[in-house]
Amino acid sequence: MHVLPLIRTPHAMLPPKDKTTICFAHSAYQLKSRFERRRTGISCFEVRTDASLAERIGEADVLVISGLWRNDLLVEARKLKLIQSVSAGVDQFSGDLLRARGVRLASARGANEEAVAEHAMALMLAFYRRLGEARDNQMRRIWRGMISDPDRREDELAGKTILILGMGRIGARLASLAKAFDMRILGIRRNPPAARDGVDCVYPPSELEKLLPQADVVALTCPLTEETRNIISSRTLALMKATAILVNVSRGGCVDEEALSESLVAGRLAGACLDCVVDEPLAPSSPLWNFDNVLITPHSAGETRQYEENILNLLLDNLERMWRGEPNLKNQVV
Predict the structure, then answer these.
(1) Does the pLDDT at position 173 exceed 90?
(2) CA 165 to CA 268: how far, in whole Å?
(3) N or C: which end of the chain has fewer CB within 10 A?
(4) For the chain, what is the domain count?
């Protein structure tokens, strides 16, 4: 078994532009073809599977990747100088191992802030306007009649309180969209004074349990860290209103899925909108598929028609910074 040394190595310089090779590693994104349209003169290749990545990673000076990454790939990545993540989340990368090998890491923070915030709003609107039910009725050619019971009708966002856990770029953009729907905005952020405008009140994480009973919508836009892992647990779910909904557009690991399922079965939560789950793809045996009051999207919140271009803009910015010898990258993590 190969053991990676943990001796800190200084950040290495990239080769000259005409000697640099980029590997685009993603199962679906069209990064290579979009990159080649820019006529940069930089050599590149594309892999779409774990096996092909493991076979060719030794050729890459720069790696553009997210879900295909495994930390043991560093054993063969002898030329690697830069990893540009294609996602805002970077919890899959070992910072210690990257530092030990002198490999720099930058996230895609900001590349999908509009898309993910819009998706969160779309999930809320779909839930409260019962669009999933309407689509199901359409496919069955059923025209639903008027509903006498007000509690079973569609609902409005105006006047509701949304609690946003994570007031970074995505959370701040979600706040501005929610404000346009006349919602009351509460935010959770490590450094409350640094929060963006448009939020009614911002609090530190220590206030979470006091805020949960006020929220009609609890939206997760936070990174997955040791502090946020299972932040939605049996304890925090018990503090939420029975009429509240959970919206997760961050990482599946922020939610204890067993506790969520138990709350839904017991009727202690009105519903959930999930763009991410702990293990993706969601297993066919997962009970989350079976709830009428759960909306599931396949971690697609950031996948818009513009996403590849946004990633390439970040990549080229960081390449130019490295060639100029600048100490800091855009969205630098390591």
Answers:
(1) yes
(2) 20
(3) N
(4) 2
Q: Which residues contact 178 (CB under 8 A, 6 or more apart)?
A: 121, 157, 162, 164, 185
Distance CA 20, CA 78 (A): 14
The partner residues of 22 in beta bridges, in order of sequence, read 44, 62
| Interhelix angle 131-139/113-128, nearest 10 degrees | 70
- Both 164 and 260 in a single domain? yes
Three-state DSSP class for residue 79: coil
CA distance 267 to 131: 21
| Paired tokens of 105 | 């890491």
Judgement on whether residues 152 and 282 belong to the same structural domain of the protein:
yes
Looking at residue 264, its pLDDT comes to 98
Q: Is residue 6 in some structural domain?
A: no
Per residue in 300-328, pLDDT (tens digit) is 999 899 999 999 999 999 999 999 999 99
Compute CA distances 272 → 52, 242, 256, 284, whole Å.
37, 12, 13, 18
d(CA 107, CA 146): 49
pTM over 0.90: no
- DSSP sequence for 204-272: -GGGHHHHGGG-SEEEE-----TTTTT-B-HHHHHHS-TT-EEEE-S-GGGB-HHHHHHHHHHT-SSEE
Residues 244 and 128 grouped into a single domain: yes
Q: What is the mean pLDDT of residues 1-9?
A: 50
Considering 104, 119, 184, 299, which one is annotated as catalytic?
299
Full residue range of the structural domain in which residue 55 is found = 17-111+304-323
- Cβ contacts of 229 within 8 Å, gap of 6 or more: 253, 254
Is 280 one of the annotated active-site residues of the chain? yes
Same domain, 284 and 311: no
Please name the helix (run of DSSP H) or strand (run of DSSP E) that holds residue 64, with its range, or none: strand 62-65
Which region, left, alpha or beta, applies to residue 220 given φ > 0 means left and ψ of -120 to 50 means alpha? beta
Which of these is catalytic: 55, 209, 258, 280?
280
